[in-house]
Write a structure and sequence with these properties.
With about 575 residues, this protein is α+β, with helices and mostly antiparallel strands. About 20% of the residues lie in helices and about 35% in strands. It has a 16-stranded antiparallel barrel with strand order 3-4-5-6-7-8-9-10-11-14-15-16-19-20-21-22. The chain is globular. The two termini are about 55 Å apart.
Length: about 575
């Protein structure tokens, strides 16, 4: 019988060991020699196994090269082997992991019912999201992603449907230049999520617990994606990301008005620290800062200047809006259009579009906290925004007596005063939530750092790992959750409960006389301040995850306190009840 290379090596080693053992004196410790023999044999077996694997790999490469040469006759080296998976969309990756390609998407179908004392009961169903995305890696260090929205309430296809559209470079740049920092630096360009907080930055809607994000996130951090450039780095238990951004495809218009003042821009930064991170426990602490320079933008070109207008009561399927400030750039919009005034809403003045009249800048911060122990977790965030604005008179707005002809005094005062044009204003909001997996899962398995998620690191970017899915004879994962959220968009001299008297003085409440002169009406308008509304809400949730990529959500919500915005006084104390459901799939 002919022995192979590995067999011959083992035979020679065994013979040598046997001969050596025979030569020892009889008094030697036989047990010790046997242990030594066993250890040396194990080492030789490991070496032989390694040699066999190397020979097999070399043989496969040689065979592939020979087949390639015989096929095309050019002698080019064979393409690298690839890994293909259909478990989570289509995923293709080369053996050396230098190139990869993933085609994924998501579909969210929502339905809801609401009891609304002011507007009556309502119900609706819609395709909340239907997205397709393509992501991948090239030449080991280059990353890319494009994502397009086909769903939503409008159904229209335009630039506003673009979500992610970015490229990134991940490389230990500082170490390359000899500096003592060996971790990767990520540089990201084009349309991307701004680092404005944990919930707002969570790229996957499947990674958030409730059907909709909190009112705070919708008011201060929407639209979440903007064109810009960012840089980030981090490790297992800490990370930082900062960037400079400008317009968003999701703005009301495709770009801010093209005038001499230019587009708006902002600088954002986020830092995260995890003092505890194990398989069972996690503590996450984070902070975000933002500086926004408005330049020539108004609400016609930047939705964020209508603070709270996009908040749909954490029930987007029902489209109920209980909040909203006036345009923070002092462009009034609405039904008033005064000839010869810069306040002519959404019209032109001497060939120029309406632009920013008073807003200088915005400064904001956000604090975030998460604590997880096994299947139980709590999460909370607080956010505050400061608006720095110029005070000015009606003359500065070019409102002339001719322009005011025929305009009731209280309306003229409202225009001249700008709905309370104090030089500064601030708004805030928060949410706190708790959740529990009844089936033992933990949110930690859905948490990703910069090593596995360069786009939105240190967030819950995906659903947790399911312990017993339906396909393996289990019941899936079951989760219960509760959230308290609050937002306050009132600011100024009026205080919390002088809303009705102040608006009554402006003739906006039946039975209260309107001031007869422009000056008294202006004083009354100034006393109102900025009134965007205030809402508190509690939400209870039940979630079922039958398989990876599938989830069914059930949410009950109740508005517990409501102070109406300036343009909807009938919404005061309008406590609503809502019930939402969602079926979602992602791949």
């Amino acid at each position: 019988m002919k022995l192979g290379v590995g067999q011959r090596a083992l035979a020679i080693a065994a013979f040598g060991l046997f001969t050596s053992a025979s030569a020892t004196p009889a008094a030697a410790d036989t047990a010790s020699e046997l242990r030594e023999l066993k250890a040396r044999l194990q080492q030789l077996e490991a070496q032989v196994a390694k040699q066999r694997a190397e020979v097999k790999r070399a043989t496969n490469v040689a065979n592939a090269a020979q087949a390639h040469v015989s096929k095309d006759g050019h002698g080019h080296p064979p393409p690298p082997p690839v890994f293909v998976s259909f478990k989570n969309g289509l995923f293709v990756e080369t053996e050396d992991k230098a190139f990869s390609f993933h085609v994924g998407g998501r579909v969210h179908a929502d339905g809801g019912w609401q009891s609304d004392p002011a507007n009556g009961d309502a119900s609706n169903v819609l395709l909340r999201r239907a997205r397709l995305d393509i992501a991948g890696k090239a030449f080991k260090y280059w990353y890319y992603r494009t994502q397009f929205e086909f769903g939503g309430s409008s159904g229209a296809v335009s630039a506003a449907n673009v979500r992610d559209a970015w490229l990134a470079f991940k490389y230990p740049i500082l170490a390359k230049f000899g500096l003592p920092y060996e971790r990767d630096i990520v540089i990201q360009l084009a349309n991307q999520l701004r680092p404005l907080g944990l919930e707002a930055m969570s790229t996957s809607n499947s990674g958030i617990t409730f059907i909709e994000r909190s009112m705070m996130s919708d008011a201060f951090n929407t639209p979440r994606r903007h064109l810009g450039a960012s840089i980030s780095t981090g490790d297992h238990n800490w990370g930082v990301k900062t960037g400079i951004y400008s317009t968003s495809p999701q703005d009301t218009a495709n770009r801010p008005f093209n005038n001499q003042l230019g587009q708006y821009w902002e600088v954002d930064g986020r830092a995260v620290y995890l003092p505890i991170r194990t398989e069972e426990d996690l503590i996450h602490i984070g902070a975000t800062g933002r500086y926004y320079k408005n330049n020539g933008a108004s609400s016609a070109s930047n939705d964020e200047l209508l603070v709270g207008r996009g908040v749909r009561n954490e029930a987007n399927a029902l489209n109920t809006r209980l909040l909203g400030t006036p345009d923070m750039s002092c462009n009034p919009g609405g039904p008033f259009s005064l000839a010869g005034s810069r306040w002519a809403a959404n019209t032109t003045l001497n060939g120029q579009l309406v632009q920013n009249n008073c807003l200088r800048s915005v400064a904001a911060f956000n604090l975030e906290f998460v604590a997880i122990h096994g299947p139980f977790s709590i999460q909370a965030e607080y956010s505050r925004s400061y608006y720095s604005r110029d005070s000015y008179t009606s003359a500065g707005l070019l409102i002339t007596p001719t322009a005011l002809t025929g305009v009731p005094a209280f309306q003229a005062a409202r225009l001249a005063a700008g709905q309370g044009l104090q030089s500064s204003a601030s708004f805030d909001g928060f949410y706190a939530q708790a959740q529990l997996f009844l089936t033992g899962e933990t949110r930690i398995t859905g948490y990703t750092d910069i090593e596995h998620n360069i786009n939105t690191p240190y967030t819950f970017s995906t659903a947790p790992k399911i312990l017993n899915p339906i396909s393996k004879g289990g019941y899936g994962a079951w989760e219960v959750a509760a959230r308290w959220s609050s937002i306050n968009l009132d600011n100024g001299a009026q205080g919390a409960w002088s809303y009705l008297p102040a608006y009554g003085a402006l003739g906006l409440v039946p039975g209260v006389a309107t001031p007869t002169g422009l000056i008294p009406a202006t004083l009354a308008a100034n006393s109102v301040g900025l009134t965007g509304g205030r809402v508190n809400k509690i939400t209870l949730g039940l979630n079922w995850y039958p398989e990876k990529g599938y989830r069914f959500l059930f949410n009950y919500g109740r508005v517990l306190a409501n102070v109406a915005p300036y343009n909807q006084p009938w919404l005061n104390s309008n406590d609503t009840n809502s019930f939402l459901t969602r079926a979602e799939v992602w791949w």
